[in-house]
């Protein structure tokens, strides 16, 4: 390998490490503690993620609506990025609990309701820029990322709920059959 290639690899590795260090946790210590306490309880844990994501969306809307806010665009982008990060964590948790074959039927209902709410709020935020393409351009990438995440999450959550309804309906019938055979 040439010196140039080695230097390039070191530069890439270093910049990746720096980017990782600069990335902050979108959750505060109290939120992390709440999540830690609910690690094995899907219904509680998923509701917490919904609550935290909702809080970030509300913050985004408040900051953006406040003309006196310092660094309004940066604060709006930060709140939107925090929403995306928390929403991604919510979806990762849904996947983890589903992979463990947990019954998520009750836990998914508030998540699906939140998916609809989040999509509506994000679309309303996007449409607020209809007359200002320059303003819209500032948030285009993050807003597109958030909308894609929520739309994909909503689709996956609905599909998972339908699968679980079917799975646990058959499981209940199987359990009744096994109990009747034992008696």
Outline the secondary-structure elements.
Elements: H1 3-22, H2 29-37, H3 42-65, H4 72-99, H5 105-127, H6 133-182
Structure description:
By secondary structure, this protein is mainly alpha-helical. The protein has one domain. 84% of the residues lie in helices and 0% in strands. The chain has six helices and no strands. Helix 3 runs antiparallel to helix 4, helix 3 runs parallel beside helix 5 and helix 4 runs parallel beside helix 6. The longest helix is centred in the last third of the chain and has 50 residues. The chain starts with a helix and ends with a helix. About 4% of the residues have low confidence.
**Beta-strand share of residues:** under 5%
Mean pLDDT: 85
The number of domains: 1
Structure classification: mainly alpha
Overall strand count: 0
Shape: globular
* Alpha carbon gap, first and last residue: 74 Å
């Amino acid at each position: 390998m040439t010196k140039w290639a080695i230097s390039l690899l070191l530069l890439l590795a270093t910049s990746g490490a720096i980017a990782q260090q600069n990335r902050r946790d979108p959750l505060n210590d109290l939120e992390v503690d709440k999540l830690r306490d609910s690690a094995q309880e899907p219904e509680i844990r998923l509701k917490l993620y919904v609550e935290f994501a909702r809080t970030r969306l509300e913050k985004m809307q408040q900051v953006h609506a406040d003309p006196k806010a310092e660094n309004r665009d940066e604060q709006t982008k930060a709140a939107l990025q925090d929403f995306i990060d928390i929403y991604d964590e919510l979806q990762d948790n849904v996947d983890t609990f589903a992979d463990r074959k947990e019954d998520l039927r009750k836990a998914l209902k508030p998540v699906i309701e939140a998916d609809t709410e989040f999509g509506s709020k994000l679309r309303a935020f996007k449409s607020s820029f209809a007359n200002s393409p320059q303003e819209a351009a500032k948030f285009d990438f993050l807003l597109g990322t958030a909308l894609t995440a929520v739309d994909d999450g909503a689709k996956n959550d609905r599909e998972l709920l339908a699968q679980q309804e079917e799975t646990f309906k058959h499981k209940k019938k199987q359990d009744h059959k096994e109990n009747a055979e034992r008696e």
